[in-house]
Structure prediction request, 265 residues.
Amino acid sequence: MKPIDTHSHLYMPAFEADRAAVHTRAREALAAVCLPNVDLESVPRMLRLAASAPDFYFPMIGLHPCSVHENWEETLAGIKTYLDDPDLTWYGIGETGLDLYWDTSTLPWQEAALRVQVQWAKSAGLPLILHARDAIDPTTALIAAENEDTLWGIFHCFDGTPAQALRILELGGFKLGIGGIVTYRADVQAMVREVPLSGLVLETDSPYLPPEPHRKAKNRRNESSYTTLVCEAIARIKGLEPEEVAAVTSQNAQAVFTRIPAITG
Prediction:
């Protein structure tokens, strides 16, 4: 089974000049690519990409915590119109969450916006895709307080400790998204070594956080085809074959994204 990139922003302007070539490389390497939304303006771009290959790209809808500002309620209302559109199919809510790296002053708005999107996920029966940069503990605490059988998803770009990882997995319905940083960060490698493969999914977060050997290239852009490098890194860390990592993590991804048709190739 080919890997699945569970988190990629291939609709962003960073791919405008060569999106067709990026798509070709992704299609050759992967079974599917999941597209998290960022803000209100990004939705049309994401939908255009998803429509170009609806059997390969699976869009989500939500508001990124770094896009949460004073008018967050108005922005969420605009995004909700897309969620409620009966002609559109969504595969997850996100990406949402908390970010304490860029601006801690917006935390109360971020928390409020996250709680709204948690309810969207529960009501729509969709997975919740969480961003938790420098905010793993507060994000986990908020999700734990809201947790029930109707809440599941992914803590994307996870770079926490083994203890934090196991606490999230104990919530019952969440997986950990592992991206390119696993190719060069020793702490993330140590965490992945201790966490069961059943709790992991693969991602790139393209165009951000390229893996080695692309991290120091002149063009530091990440792309979905590099998911295979993440897969190979996890295989080395765990002493497994890349094919086994690809198969298990793709099964994990399909357990999260329940609306994606079964992938066998």
Q: What stands out?
A: The chain has a mean pLDDT of 96.
